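dumping this here so i dont lose it
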């Protein structure tokens, strides 16, 4: 399977529960190395990338023989809640304990809490990306908008020309990337 940036989840990353981004990334990379599943769970709450939406995007990427990616941009505000997830579900019906050895997955544990699942996570500078070259995966006539409360958004590279207008800050530095793995996103509690 090839890695490309046609099917992408864009995510703004910032400090979380008094932990800075570099520590969070280091801890999540450590999860991948240490857990039996070789995965990490990345807490999210954006309405533009809920588990069902992420699962559809990833299924489409796999059909096209592409690895679905998440690209991280710097920014985001400090979050304060550090409730700890204990269980996950890919369908809101069957719940499982989090994988053994997984570091804490924290945030506000309400009906909007979920996690993206990665089997590969890299930190560094991966160039810049123009959000005007992407459409919202679920509304192809809309541009990518990562403004609150949509700090994480499912996107697809446009086959036509870029949008003539969208977010003013459409050129973004990619500071990390993660490869999503099945079931790609799960609900937390």
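and the seq i came up w/
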């Amino acid at each position: 399977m090839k890695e490309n940036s046609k099917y992408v989840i864009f995510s703004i990353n910032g400090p979380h529960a008094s932990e800075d981004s570099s520590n969070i990334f280091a801890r999540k990379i450590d999860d991948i190395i240490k857990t039996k599943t070789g995965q990490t769970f990345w807490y999210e709450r954006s309405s533009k990338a809920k588990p069902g939406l992420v699962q559809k995007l990833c299924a489409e990427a796999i059909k096209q023989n592409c690895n679905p990616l998440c690209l991280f941009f710097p920014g985001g505000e400090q979050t304060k809640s550090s409730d700890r997830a204990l269980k996950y579900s890919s369908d809101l019906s069957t719940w499982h304990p989090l994988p053994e050895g997984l570091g804490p997955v924290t945030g506000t544990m309400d009906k909007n809490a979920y996690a993206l699942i990665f089997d590969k996570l890299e930190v560094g500078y991966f160039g810049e990306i123009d959000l005007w070259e992407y459409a919202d995966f679920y509304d192809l006539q809309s541009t990518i908008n990562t403004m609150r409360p949509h700090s994480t958004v499912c996107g697809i590279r446009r086959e036509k020309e870029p949008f003539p207008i969208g977010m003013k800050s459409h050129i973004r530095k990619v500071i990390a990337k993660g490869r999503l793995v099945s079931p790609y996103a799960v609900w937390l509690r």
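The helical segments are 21-34, 51-63.
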